[in-house]
Write a structure and sequence with these properties.
By secondary structure, the protein is of the alpha+beta class. It is about 25% helix and about 25% strand. Strand 2 and strand 3 form a beta hairpin.
């Protein structure tokens, strides 16, 4: 009869927590898989001094390490919303999260509608625009 093998593994959350404190996960919302080198190049050119490392996780999904708290807080507010015509959805990553379980399929965006008649500016119409 075979015995089950049990191995007790140790966690180093304290060290890893310090090393991963300033990470964002970014997902490019695209119908095709974008070129990894070009994506990384665009990210590096926009956040030259703020980014320490960029790692591809899976197709169109990247981990971005920032140098400090100010940089990681300012990054989602910056102008980098589009890479090669695709939206970049950024979320803060915590050490206890599995990257694939972070919902990156939706993102909040601000839109402006020009020349909309005043009588069309209703909550119901805003919800219709939001859903489309």
């Amino acid at each position: 009869m075979e015995k089950d093998l049990v191995i007790s593994l140790e966690s180093d959350k304290e060290r890893l927590g310090r090393d991963t404190e300033f990470w964002l996960v970014g997902k490019l919302i695209a119908d095709i898989i974008l070129n990894r080198r070009r994506v990384i190049g665009v990210i590096q050119s926009i956040w030259k001094r703020e980014v320490k490392a960029i790692k591809k996780v899976e197709a169109n999904t990247y981990m971005i390490s920032f140098k400090d708290k100010r940089s990681i807080e300012e990054a989602p507010k910056s102008s980098l919303w589009s890479i090669m015509g695709s939206c970049l959805n950024l979320k803060r990553w915590r050490i206890d999260q599995v990257i694939q379980e972070i919902n990156l399929s939706k993102m909040a965006i601000w839109i402006q509608v020009h020349k909309l008649p005043l009588e069309m500016m209703t909550k119901k119409n805003a919800e219709k625009i939001e859903e489309s």
